[in-house]
Amino acid sequence: MMMEWEKQPQQEEVMVNGNNNGIFVKVMTDEQMEVLREQISVYATICEQLVEMHKSLTSHHDLAGVRLGNLYCDPLVTSVGHKITGRQRWTPTPVQLQILESIFDQGNGTPSKQKIKDITSELLQHGQISETNVYNWFQNRRARSKRKQQVSAPNNAESEVETEVESPNEKKTKPEDFQFQQNPAPRAEGLCFQNPQMSSGMDSTD
Amino acid sequence: MMMEWEKQPQQEEVMVNGNNNGIFVKVMTDEQMEVLREQISVYATICEQLVEMHKSLTSHHDLAGVRLGNLYCDPLVTSVGHKITGRQRWTPTPVQLQILESIFDQGNGTPSKQKIKDITSELLQHGQISETNVYNWFQNRRARSKRKQQVSAPNNAESEVETEVESPNEKKTKPEDFQFQQNPAPRAEGLCFQNPQMSSGMDSTD
DNA sequence: CTTTTATGAATGAAGG
DNA sequence: CCTTCATTCATAAAAG
């Protein structure tokens, strides 16, 4: 059964600026926001429960544990299936990524040498990784984050939307941090939570 | 296990109606929408993978299957867990493409930042486009062009350097060479994360 | 509608 | 740090 919201994207598109250069934004009502929160929350809960179930299983059945050992250890979450035929470049596992992101968010934009080692050790518990990988990751993360800023910056023509973001400490995700995308299909889009295809799963095509 | 959703929402409140009786709603930027999609998508993917894993386990251990049977059949979980992806990508209009191609052909293979802005402005007259789009286009164009060169011109100039992995000397891109990620198998099952609170969602105009 | 191809976008790594 | 390149992923468009 599909979730309701997929069929009920009832946000409206409003033009913030009255002139023809105005920007269109998605509008959500409080209720919709709440629903979203609920749904995400549900996912979180489910995930936790499933993980617990999995733990129970593997702890009670060595055989199963072994069998799936190399599968759940990280591949479970090994995101998009990629060939195991000698990957040339490191790809962070979701867990590693999450950790990296959280560290990045902590504002310590200064990845010191020692810090790198520290982080690397930590991440090694969740998959192969090297200090260079960590170093590069932070460099790239920083650079790209910054670039996004400057791209979205050209907001001289201030709109009616007061940029009253009272989160000066937030340095990465800016509200106006989006870019225009051509949308040839003027049809209702809103929350396009669709299901094109579940593809890219854990199909490790070796 | 919760993600940063709680901290992300930086929507602004705007009054949809100009008059003082207007309703206040939350506004989400495309960026935020994208973040949301990503997060939900992650949950969906993880859930699906966990379910798959669970299936593998239970198929080998009836006991475990029974044990967990009433657990995953919980009202919480009802059907379809799917990936929610809603990214849409920019598609250049013929006119834009024409201009881009001509610029590319002018040999100025070095699209500087200022140049990008310039080009973007130009192309904006022929359809929606962003600097990032232009940047990406040139990056891709050059890469593709270069690749074609090396493929169509297998000059023996550099002897046996083709001791590469895989088969780079293969005629252009060979689809069969790399992984197939499509699996159009119509699956009408899986998990569904339903919640009493969710079901009576936003469709009720209350 | 399903499968394949073309190509926009994301990102790890290297160079300066 | 910033820019550039190479490879990969995902999806719109085309082909069947």
UniProtKB/TrEMBL annotation, chains A, B:
Cellular compartment(s): Nucleus
**Domain Homeobox: from-to ranges:** 83-148
GO MF terms here are: DNA binding; DNA-binding transcription factor activity
Disordered, as annotated region:
145-176
Q: Which UniProt keywords apply?
A: DNA-binding, Homeobox, Nucleus
On whether Hydrolase is a keyword of this UniProt record, the answer is: no
Q: What positions belong to coiled-coil segments? A: none
**A GO cellular component entry from the record:** nucleus
Locate the DNA-binding region by residue range: 85-149
- Where composition is biased (Polar residues), the residues are 194-206
Q: What is this protein called?
A: Homeobox domain-containing protein
Its source organism is Nyssa sinensis
Source lineage: Eukaryota, Viridiplantae, Streptophyta, Embryophyta, Tracheophyta
Q: Which residues of the full protein are shown?
A: 1 to 206 of 269
